[in-house]
Amino acid sequence: MTTLSKDHLLGNIAALAQIGAIDGGGCARLALTDEDKSGRDLVVSWMKELGLAVRIDAIGNVIGVRAGRENLPPVMTGSHIDTVRTGGRYDGNYGVLAGLEVVRALNEAGTTTRRPIAVAFFTNEEGARFQPDMLGSLVYAGGLGLDEAYAASDKDGLSVGDELRRIGYLGPAEPGFVIPHAFVELHIEQGPILDEEKVQIGVVESVQGISWTEYTVTGVSNHVGTTPMRLRRDAGYLAASVNLFARKLALDMGGNQVATVGQLALRPNLINVVPNRAVFAVDLRNTDEARLKEAEAQVAAHIADTAAAERVEVETKVLVRFEPVIFDGGLVDRVEHHAKALGLSTRRMPSGAGHDAQMMQRLCPTAMIFVPSVEGLSHNVREHTEATDLAAGAEVLLRLMLELAEG
Ligand code: HGY
Ligand code: MN
Ligand code: MN
Prior knowledge:
Layout: H1 6-17, E1 21-22, E2 26-27, H2 34-49, E3 53-56, E4 62-66, E5 75-79, H3 93-109, E6 117-121, H4 135-140, H5 146-151, H6 160-167, E7 182-188, H7 193-197, E8 201-207, E9 209-218, E10 222-223, H8 235-253, E11 258-267, E12 273-274, E13 277-286, H9 289-310, E14 313-322, E15 325-326, H10 329-341, E16 346-351, H11 357-360, E17 366-371, H12 387-405
Parallel strand pairs: 5-6, 5-7, 7-17, 8-16
Antiparallel strand pairs: 1-2, 3-4, 4-6, 8-15, 8-17, 9-13, 9-14, 10-12, 11-13
The structure holds (2S)-amino(hydroxy)ethanoic acid and manganese (II) ion (MN) (2 copies).
One manganese (II) ion binds near residues 80, 91, 125, 187 and 355.
């Protein structure tokens, strides 16, 4: 029986976490930074050590392929190795490195599967530096053109295209150069459900819809002491009112609705000057598309009304809009089957976070496997998953991939 090495997996997670390491045990490897390049170089070296044929595509996605007995579409697994600025060491990294352990297990067993096996990491999954998020897998799945992707720029005006070239990962392969037979992504839950319910494996049925909108508000800067409230055109006030409105809206809507203003910049950002400019982003998500549309409409109406009353101008820019994605039912069933066959407790659930798998579902049957996040923490240096859970998730991945690779 092919078995998977927990020690190698834990060792590689720890080794990769050293790149872009930040206080508290987390990682900062924003997409296409030098830290991301170093992480990429390390994982590519591990792919080559395992004998994988490594291909890099024109948006910097990296896919290592292990030949099968027959030249058929591969069974692919993967995720991302870019992180947010205050990231943990498991988000994305775990799925990629577990995929490498599946390959190592096959190598050590001397097994050649009928179908090739592929392990991928995709560019800029996080969307923290460049939008949209899941950029690499979206391009791979044909959802975004290369030119538009290359033009995406960060706050300093650096573009995806230039940064890809700079770090040497603008590869020759055409995005989408291999369409998998199936795609399975192993990932930490990043939320509290499995940990609270003490369930070992999340059988992920869907990914909720994601709406990212950036607002640039222009008011009038003025002296905070001499300007009466009736004369203010306070850009910062509008931004703050949206945050409060969105929070109350999500609580009133209930269900899976979430709303966040996580990014906000005021200008001139001085204690005694009424801000004349606010740039902020609103993240709205829901598993139900109609409810997500309703939330978007309510936020837009609040902004229009408040901007009129405050006599400020608002420029709106949609950064990301992905509808909910339903994974392949048959493949989801197989995730559940293999987890139960291993004696693991399971529960079906949606994903609150976006993932590359939601893009790969456009190309082939796709499913995800979740393992618990302690206290539901993620995008936080204290992100943690117990070693036994990491190993259990990887074992489910191995069993499922072996089944699919003989299919
Ligand atoms: O935003 C997300 O859900 C993912 O972490 N990119
Ligand atoms: Mn992730
Ligand atoms: Mn993430």
